[in-house]
Design brief:
- By secondary structure, the chain is of the alpha+beta class.
- It is built from three helices and nine strands.
- It folds into two domains: 8-79, PGBD-like superfamily/PGBD (Muramoyl-pentapeptide Carboxypeptidase, domain 1), CATH 1.10.101; 90-231, Glucose Permease (Domain IIA).
- The protein has helices at 18-32, 46-58, 72-79; strands at residues 134-137, 143-145, 150-159, 163-170, 174-179, 181-184, 191-192, 197-201, 211-218.
- A hairpin with a 3-residue loop joins strand 3 (150-159) and strand 4 (163-170).
- The radius of gyration is 18 Å and the shape is globular.
- The protein binds zinc ion (ZN).
- Zinc ion binds at residues 131, 133, 135, 213.
Protein backbone atom coordinates (compact mmCIF):
# COMPACT_ATOMS: atom_id res chain seq x y z
CA UNK A 1 0.00 0.00 0.00
CA UNK A 2 1.22 3.50 -0.80
CA UNK A 3 2.69 5.52 2.04
CA UNK A 4 2.38 8.84 0.20
CA UNK A 5 0.01 11.49 1.52
CA UNK A 6 -3.12 11.42 -0.66
CA UNK A 7 -3.76 15.17 -0.20
CA UNK A 8 -5.75 17.33 2.19
CA UNK A 9 -8.61 17.48 -0.33
CA UNK A 10 -9.42 13.85 0.55
CA UNK A 11 -10.35 14.72 4.14
CA UNK A 12 -13.01 16.77 5.85
CA UNK A 13 -16.72 17.33 5.92
CA UNK A 14 -18.63 15.78 3.02
CA UNK A 15 -15.73 13.64 1.80
CA UNK A 16 -16.03 9.88 1.33
CA UNK A 17 -13.18 7.66 0.09
CA UNK A 18 -10.84 4.79 0.95
CA UNK A 19 -8.22 7.15 2.43
CA UNK A 20 -10.68 8.08 5.18
CA UNK A 21 -11.27 4.38 5.88
CA UNK A 22 -7.52 3.84 6.09
CA UNK A 23 -7.08 6.89 8.31
CA UNK A 24 -9.75 5.62 10.72
CA UNK A 25 -8.23 2.15 10.92
CA UNK A 26 -4.79 3.63 11.62
CA UNK A 27 -6.19 5.95 14.30
CA UNK A 28 -8.02 3.06 15.97
CA UNK A 29 -4.74 1.11 16.04
CA UNK A 30 -3.04 4.10 17.66
CA UNK A 31 -5.52 4.34 20.53
CA UNK A 32 -8.42 6.20 18.92
CA UNK A 33 -11.04 3.49 19.26
CA UNK A 34 -13.04 5.38 21.84
CA UNK A 35 -13.97 8.02 19.26
CA UNK A 36 -15.50 5.60 16.77
CA UNK A 37 -19.18 4.70 17.16
CA UNK A 38 -19.01 2.46 14.10
CA UNK A 39 -16.41 1.05 11.71
CA UNK A 40 -14.00 3.54 10.16
CA UNK A 41 -14.87 5.24 6.86
CA UNK A 42 -15.50 5.71 4.10
CA UNK A 43 -17.55 8.81 5.00
CA UNK A 44 -15.77 11.55 6.97
CA UNK A 45 -17.31 12.03 10.40
CA UNK A 46 -16.79 13.68 13.77
CA UNK A 47 -14.96 10.56 14.96
CA UNK A 48 -12.29 11.13 12.30
CA UNK A 49 -11.94 14.77 13.31
CA UNK A 50 -11.81 14.03 17.05
CA UNK A 51 -9.44 11.06 16.75
CA UNK A 52 -7.10 12.88 14.34
CA UNK A 53 -7.00 15.88 16.68
CA UNK A 54 -6.29 13.64 19.68
CA UNK A 55 -3.45 11.98 17.76
CA UNK A 56 -2.02 15.36 16.73
CA UNK A 57 -2.25 16.62 20.33
CA UNK A 58 -0.54 13.43 21.52
CA UNK A 59 2.47 14.49 19.42
CA UNK A 60 2.51 17.82 21.26
CA UNK A 61 1.35 19.75 18.20
CA UNK A 62 -0.88 22.77 18.66
CA UNK A 63 -2.90 25.31 16.68
CA UNK A 64 -3.43 24.45 13.03
CA UNK A 65 -1.12 21.44 13.41
CA UNK A 66 -3.78 19.96 15.69
CA UNK A 67 -6.90 20.94 13.73
CA UNK A 68 -8.21 17.39 13.29
CA UNK A 69 -7.49 17.30 9.54
CA UNK A 70 -4.54 15.09 8.57
CA UNK A 71 -1.67 16.76 6.73
CA UNK A 72 1.52 15.19 5.33
CA UNK A 73 3.17 14.95 8.74
CA UNK A 74 0.14 13.36 10.46
CA UNK A 75 -0.13 10.88 7.57
CA UNK A 76 3.58 10.05 7.77
CA UNK A 77 3.36 9.41 11.51
CA UNK A 78 0.28 7.19 11.15
CA UNK A 79 1.35 5.18 8.11
CA UNK A 80 4.89 4.66 9.37
CA UNK A 81 4.02 4.05 13.02
CA UNK A 82 5.89 7.11 14.32
CA UNK A 83 5.21 9.26 17.36
CA UNK A 84 3.03 8.68 20.38
CA UNK A 85 -0.29 6.86 20.63
CA UNK A 86 -3.48 8.62 21.71
CA UNK A 87 -3.42 8.38 25.52
CA UNK A 88 -5.94 6.27 27.36
CA UNK A 89 -5.82 2.99 25.50
CA UNK A 90 -2.89 1.35 27.22
CA UNK A 91 -3.52 -1.71 29.32
CA UNK A 92 -0.15 -1.46 31.02
CA UNK A 93 -1.38 0.50 34.02
CA UNK A 94 -3.85 -2.17 35.10
CA UNK A 95 -3.03 -3.82 38.36
CA UNK A 96 -5.08 -6.51 36.98
CA UNK A 97 -7.34 -9.43 37.15
CA UNK A 98 -7.62 -11.41 40.29
CA UNK A 99 -7.13 -8.41 42.54
CA UNK A 100 -9.56 -8.12 45.42
CA UNK A 101 -12.51 -5.79 44.90
CA UNK A 102 -11.76 -2.59 46.76
CA UNK A 103 -14.34 -0.17 45.43
CA UNK A 104 -17.35 -1.24 47.45
CA UNK A 105 -17.26 1.84 49.63
CA UNK A 106 -18.26 4.12 46.77
CA UNK A 107 -22.00 3.70 46.26
CA UNK A 108 -22.42 6.11 43.33
CA UNK A 109 -20.17 7.98 40.87
CA UNK A 110 -22.29 11.02 41.83
CA UNK A 111 -22.48 10.76 45.63
CA UNK A 112 -26.02 11.27 46.88
CA UNK A 113 -27.55 10.65 43.46
CA UNK A 114 -29.09 7.53 41.95
CA UNK A 115 -29.52 6.27 38.40
CA UNK A 116 -32.19 8.37 36.68
CA UNK A 117 -32.08 6.69 33.26
CA UNK A 118 -30.84 3.15 33.06
CA UNK A 119 -28.37 1.26 30.95
CA UNK A 120 -29.79 -0.81 28.10
CA UNK A 121 -32.96 1.16 27.28
CA UNK A 122 -33.54 0.60 23.57
CA UNK A 123 -33.93 3.72 21.46
CA UNK A 124 -33.25 4.28 17.77
CA UNK A 125 -31.60 7.63 18.48
CA UNK A 126 -28.50 5.79 19.72
CA UNK A 127 -26.09 4.49 17.06
CA UNK A 128 -25.85 1.24 19.03
CA UNK A 129 -29.65 1.02 19.39
CA UNK A 130 -29.57 1.14 23.18
CA UNK A 131 -28.44 3.36 26.05
CA UNK A 132 -24.77 2.51 26.65
CA UNK A 133 -24.48 3.70 30.25
CA UNK A 134 -26.33 4.71 33.38
CA UNK A 135 -27.39 8.36 33.70
CA UNK A 136 -27.26 10.21 37.00
CA UNK A 137 -29.29 13.43 36.82
CA UNK A 138 -27.77 16.09 39.10
CA UNK A 139 -27.30 19.85 39.00
CA UNK A 140 -24.35 21.24 37.06
CA UNK A 141 -21.39 21.46 39.43
CA UNK A 142 -22.21 18.34 41.47
CA UNK A 143 -18.95 16.42 42.09
CA UNK A 144 -18.32 13.09 40.34
CA UNK A 145 -15.92 10.65 42.00
CA UNK A 146 -13.77 7.64 41.16
CA UNK A 147 -15.81 4.49 41.83
CA UNK A 148 -12.57 2.58 42.35
CA UNK A 149 -8.90 3.38 42.62
CA UNK A 150 -6.95 3.50 39.37
CA UNK A 151 -5.25 5.70 36.82
CA UNK A 152 -6.79 8.41 34.65
CA UNK A 153 -6.71 7.13 31.07
CA UNK A 154 -7.84 10.37 29.47
CA UNK A 155 -9.32 13.71 30.49
CA UNK A 156 -10.22 15.94 27.59
CA UNK A 157 -12.89 17.94 25.80
CA UNK A 158 -12.69 16.21 22.45
CA UNK A 159 -15.88 14.18 22.46
CA UNK A 160 -18.53 15.66 20.19
CA UNK A 161 -21.36 13.63 21.70
CA UNK A 162 -19.79 12.79 25.06
CA UNK A 163 -18.58 16.35 25.64
CA UNK A 164 -15.89 16.94 28.22
CA UNK A 165 -15.06 13.45 29.48
CA UNK A 166 -12.78 11.34 31.63
CA UNK A 167 -11.75 7.69 31.35
CA UNK A 168 -10.67 5.89 34.52
CA UNK A 169 -8.60 2.71 34.20
CA UNK A 170 -9.70 1.10 37.44
CA UNK A 171 -7.91 -1.53 39.52
CA UNK A 172 -10.42 -4.21 38.47
CA UNK A 173 -9.33 -4.02 34.83
CA UNK A 174 -12.36 -2.02 33.69
CA UNK A 175 -12.44 1.46 32.16
CA UNK A 176 -15.14 3.74 33.61
CA UNK A 177 -16.20 6.64 31.42
CA UNK A 178 -17.55 9.93 32.84
CA UNK A 179 -19.30 12.12 30.24
CA UNK A 180 -20.84 15.60 29.74
CA UNK A 181 -18.73 17.17 32.52
CA UNK A 182 -18.65 20.89 33.28
CA UNK A 183 -15.22 20.65 34.91
CA UNK A 184 -12.35 18.14 35.14
CA UNK A 185 -9.84 18.19 37.99
CA UNK A 186 -7.59 15.28 36.93
CA UNK A 187 -5.31 14.65 33.97
CA UNK A 188 -4.20 11.59 32.01
CA UNK A 189 -1.71 9.40 33.84
CA UNK A 190 -2.74 10.60 37.30
CA UNK A 191 -3.33 8.00 40.00
CA UNK A 192 -6.61 8.39 41.89
CA UNK A 193 -8.18 6.75 44.93
CA UNK A 194 -11.74 5.43 45.20
CA UNK A 195 -14.00 8.30 46.20
CA UNK A 196 -11.67 11.01 44.94
CA UNK A 197 -13.36 13.87 43.05
CA UNK A 198 -12.61 13.76 39.32
CA UNK A 199 -14.75 16.62 38.06
CA UNK A 200 -18.26 18.04 37.99
CA UNK A 201 -21.58 17.18 36.39
CA UNK A 202 -22.41 19.33 33.37
CA UNK A 203 -24.15 19.64 30.01
CA UNK A 204 -21.25 19.44 27.52
CA UNK A 205 -21.76 17.37 24.37
CA UNK A 206 -25.06 15.99 23.17
CA UNK A 207 -27.45 16.35 26.13
CA UNK A 208 -30.86 17.75 27.00
CA UNK A 209 -30.10 18.43 30.67
CA UNK A 210 -27.40 18.20 33.34
CA UNK A 211 -26.40 14.62 34.14
CA UNK A 212 -23.50 12.22 34.30
CA UNK A 213 -23.54 9.56 31.60
CA UNK A 214 -21.47 6.75 33.11
CA UNK A 215 -20.13 3.76 31.13
CA UNK A 216 -18.34 0.56 32.05
CA UNK A 217 -16.06 -0.70 29.27
CA UNK A 218 -13.36 -3.33 29.03
CA UNK A 219 -9.89 -1.75 29.09
CA UNK A 220 -9.44 0.10 25.81
CA UNK A 221 -13.01 -0.60 24.70
CA UNK A 222 -14.89 1.67 22.33
CA UNK A 223 -18.47 2.83 21.91
CA UNK A 224 -20.99 0.05 22.48
CA UNK A 225 -18.44 -2.25 24.15
CA UNK A 226 -20.14 -1.87 27.46
CA UNK A 227 -21.86 -3.72 30.24
CA UNK A 228 -24.31 -2.57 32.89
CA UNK A 229 -22.05 -0.43 35.09
CA UNK A 230 -20.83 -2.27 38.16
CA UNK A 231 -17.68 -1.82 40.23
ZN1 LIG B 1 -26.69 8.48 29.05
Amino acid sequence: MSTGFPGAHCFGSGKSNEHITRLGKLLIKRGGKRFYQQAAGPRWGNADLDATRAFQQAQGWTGSSADGIPGPRTWDYLVNGKGKDIPGSSSSSSSGSGSKPSGGAVSSPVPGHRVSYAFGVRNARYSSGYHTGDDYAAPTGTPVVAVRSGTIAWSDANGKSYGSWIGLNADNGRTYVYCHLSARSVSAGQAVKAGQTLGKVGTTGNVTGAHLHFEDRPRGGGYGQVRKPTW
